[in-house]
Each structure stands twice: as C-alpha cells, then as structure tokens.
Amino acid sequence: MVGRVLDRRRLVLAAMLLAGTVVTLVYTSRSWFYADDFLNFREAYDASLGWDFLSRPIFQHFAIGHRFGDWAMLEWSPYNWTVALVVMHGGMLVAAFALVGIMDRLAGRHWWHLVLGFWFIASFVWVRSIQWWANALHVVPSMVGALLAVYCAVRAFEQRGWKWPLLSGLCLAFGLAFFEKAVFAVVYVVLLRLVVFVPRFSVRSLWTAVRGDWRLWTALAVVAIPWLLWYETKNYAGETQSPTRLAFEQFLRLDWLRAFVPSIWGVRVQPDATRGQDAVVVLAQVAFWAFVVWTLWRRLVVWRAWAFFFIAFFLNAALIGLNRVAMFGPGVALDYRYASEYLPLFAITVALVLSDRWPRFAATDPEAAADRPVPAAVASSTAPEPTYAAATAGSAAAVGRHAGAAPGAPEHAASSAEAAAGSAPGAAQDAASTEPAADPAATALRMGAPPASGAPDPRDDGDRPGRESRTGRPRARLMPSLPVAAVVAALCVAYVAASATSADGLADEWPAAGTERYIKTLETDVAAFRRDHDGRPPVIFDEPVPESIVMSWMAPYNLASKVIPTLGLEAGYGEPSSDLHAVDGSGHLVKLTFVPGRPPLTGIRNGQLTERRTKDHCITGPTSAEFVPPEPIGAPATDLRVRGTATGAGGMPVFIDETGGGYPGFDVGQIPIRDGAIDYGLRTRDSLHRMRLDVPEGARFCIGTIELGDFRPAG
Description:
By secondary structure, the protein is α+β, with helices and mostly antiparallel strands.
C-alpha cells in the first residue's frame, strides 16, 4: 500500500512540476538570443576549444561550463532557441526535483512539499532568468549543481561513508563551472548542519557535528578552495567599485520590500506605482511577517530555520549589491534575474517550519528543542520589520515608486493550517523518511541528537496515511484530503494567474523578439542577394549593429563584420565594390552611395593628414600611426572612407579621439588586411579630433585617400 501511495505521489509531483514549467515556458518561448549572446558567440567563433578559451573571463565570471555551452551551441545548433529552451527548462525540472528531495529529507515527506515545488518552478522570476542564453547559462546550471550538492550533503548527514560526500563535491564542481554563486551551496550545508541540526549551541555539540561529517567537509573543500584560489589569483572580478552606504541600503530595501516578498505571491512590482499598488507591497510584508510570527508562536524552535533563511538571503543580496550597485544603481534590485536564488531557500525554510518531524533532536532533547534563551533575540530581530514595511508607502518616492498587480494567495498558507491541525508540535523521529535508516539511533546521533532511550521500530515508516504510529501520534499524510486538495488547487490557480500576469509583462518589455526579426530579415535579404547575383555575397558597410544585438560599449564586437559571420552568412567588408550595402535598423540590405563632405584628406606630413596630394604613405606593422586633420571636425558624426592597398592578413583597429582628451578603450572599426585593394567605410559617433591606425605584425598598409563625408542610401 505504501509503495502505491509513494508511486502516486511521484506521479503527482511530476505532473505538478511539468504544469509549473508550462507557465514559464510559454513566456520564455517569446524570447530569443540577445546582446551578450552575440559577443560570447563571436569569441567562441574566433577561438579553438581549449583551456585558454574555456578559462577566459566572461563578464567578471570564471565559467568554463558557460564557455563550453556557447561553443557547443554555435557548433552544433547555432541560434536554435528551441534547443536553448529544452536545455534550460530541463535543468529547471532537475532543480525542482532536487529541491523537493531536500525538503523530504530534512522535514519528512509531506504533501505541501509538492506544492512548494510547483510554486518554485512556476515563478515568473524564472522568465527573467531564462530570457536570454547568456544569463540562463549562468543561473540554471549553477542552481542545479547547488541544489544537488545540498541534497547529497543531507544524505551524507544520514549515512557514513564516502558515497554521498563525493557526489556532493562533484555536484558543487558542476555548479561552479557555470557561476560562482554555486559556492554558496557550501554555506547552505554549513548553516543546515550547525544552525538547524545541532541540539544546542555549545562547543561540544558544534565540534561533534564538524567532526562527525569530516568526509563531507573534505569533499566540499577539495572543490571549493582550489576554485576560489584560481578565481582570486586570476582576478576575474577585476576592479569593482564599492557602492556608497546609502546606495547599498537602498538596494537591500528594494530587494526585500519590492522584489523578493511580492514575488512570493507571484507579483511583479512595476515602476510608476499608484498608492493602491504601494498598499499591495505593504500587505505582502504584513502577510509575510504574520506567517513568521505564527510559526514562532506554534513552535519557538523554528527560529533556527528562519535564521538559516535570513543569513543566506543577506549573503546572496550582499554579493549582488556590492558588485552591481555602483555600476547600475540601487534599482538593480528590481532585476529579477538576481532574485532566483531566494526561491529554493524560502521553500526549504517553509518546509522546515511547517513540519512536525523537525527538529529531529526534539524528542530526545526537550531542553534544546525549547531554546529558552531565544525569545528576546527573535523579538528584537523581527519587531522592526512590520514597522519598516508599514512605512514603505510613505517613503517609496525617495527610492523610486515600484508596485504591481494584486498578489495571488499563497498556496502554502493553507498548507500551514493543515500542518498545524492534528500534529504534535515538537515530536520528531529520525523515521521521518520513507526509507528508514538501518540504525535509527545512529542516524539520530549523526544529525546531532543524543541517543534516544528507545529507537523506533525500523518497520514503522511513519508515512502511512490515516493510521497512527507506534508512538501514538498521527502519521503524516502523503496526499491531502479531498477538501484540502480543492482549496490548495484553487490557491495554486490564483498563484499561476498572478505569476502569468507578471511573466507576460516581462515578456512584453523584453526586446529580444525584435532582435530575432532583425536577424531573420538579414538572412532572407542576404540569400536573395546571392540568388540574384550568381552566388556573389554582398559587400557590407561595416558599421555598428543595433544596441539590442551588441551594445556599443562592447566595440569592436558590435560591428557588422563581427556579428554577421557568426550567423553563417557570407559577406565582404572593406572590399572595393560598386554595390556597397548597409544593414538598416530592421535588418534589410540597403544599397549605399558615398557623398564626400569636403576635399579628400590625402597624403601625410609628419604623421598628420594634409589636404595636399602626396604619394601614398605605407605603414609596416607592428606599429601605430596617428593622423590629425587640419582642424577638428565637429558633430554630427562623420563617415570616413579609407582607401588603399595592403599585404598580409588580420585586422587593423581604428581608434577615434572624439573629444581631444584621448582615445577610448575600444576601437570603432577594424579595417580587414589582405593582399589587394581596400575600400573601407566606418562611422564615428561624434566629433573627430584624431585618428589612429594600429597595423598588425606582418602586415603592410599603404594609404591612398581618406575621405570624410556621408554614406547614404542610393536613390
């Protein structure tokens, strides 16, 4: 009978997780590759697969798995968003199953763990996290690795030996291959072991916990310490400016009050909030703290679970705030891709505070379960929060007004009421798992409890519904009764409605759909051109692509000559042609003509451009040559047409001084070097004070003319 119940539970879990996946899948399917993706694909296009490429920094991250993922996508399935969705949502399903497994192991099998798993995977937060490949390939695999590492660590708490510690270490290594945040899995394991699962806070209890799990600490340290040393010694983070204290406090305030807590109910807080929407933020805070206070009143020992959550929450928030606030301001807290880590932490905490089977040491150590010295600390830490939340509406204007639609009812609120009814608070046994330990007394000791006076019968699984255990307390139900199931289903529907509304807003605002149209249009026009010109590829004006594809500060990777080849499209750049084309803002090929704006600047005198005709000036690399026009050329932006001949191979970067204060850290174009004539156009963004050409080693470039004017659509 128990086997049939468990099989049914697994089927229900799988169905709920798949249903939750549909919510986010619908809206992420409306996205596409975006911005950072094109830069990463170009770097993969230029490099061969090896350690030099895999270990290359990727926006301050050491992520060899991410680099390999970019290479694999470009090599095996270029720009296939369907493949990206399958990989990312498949990873989310694995993460959700791991999360439910963690909750079952920590708190015993309960039906509300299924609901929490559904809540986790159906959150609109994942839409923001998976809307483009570059971010998803950080967040999802690292989440999978971290949760699997925690699951294996909890199994290692229960069983001696090397099997689970080694698996935990391997899962941690997998997560760290994609994102450094996976290292927090070590923090979560330590907090669970030393805060949640010790009978009392004494030197002896803590030392017993540390010593008893030395295999696990060894396996995690063998992975985490070398990784951290490599990350620090190679300076992947670079020089990061620290935020001001006020900016950091504003970030934390937004992150808690207007990002995380509303997201619990499926609500995305939007800009330009009305007073009514501000009230929703306050109500969400009141509901959250009411739940915290109720759980503490029900069983004071759950302060340990809340301590686990708040410590982990602050560490995650601090990592983001200290690295991003100085660059993007406190409003970065409302970017939900940074909130994904909070979801599994909150689910684990709720599972612990609702379970009557946790803490495991309660039955054998009533003094530790009571935790008498704690009430004052709990009160002092939680009392300011409701007041702080109530003041939000009045002070929101100081930080920026952000609010969203009315939240859906939390599904776990009904779950907590059901958990409170018919349960014996504080009575817990190590037989909470449906897989009873071979030696329950030993397992209790492993989890930090003193040996029980009477070990429970191993045949008493403690999970058979509708019957009492040998200790006389009601057994936990693996599935809720029909009336409770109906209420929970209604709450889940309300949550899905709220989350879907929030996800729809995120999908509408995300510009990746326009990027896809641009690329598809360009592919169609290039194919049509080649069909009409006997297979000859077009020659394209090498100007920046739209910001939604590659941002200008990523120059020169924002040039057409960098982006278009990664799409598998053949085109020429800088070649003499009577049919020079540009790619307009919609992705269409447009024929260009050059209209000179002044007499050609020809010849060179002492490294400066002159208007007198002299013989061609040749530059042999590796060297740089700076050219200064007779007088600065002011805004608006001026097009340059550089013609000459070259030998060798490579790219010749062109730097423009637009202010007279020096060259920027990136070039505005790269003239292709090859044997033969060159006719290259580039576009400056502002004034032109000086220009510098960097001729690569082994190349020779002879300048014919440099004309200033305007490339315009022909006709």
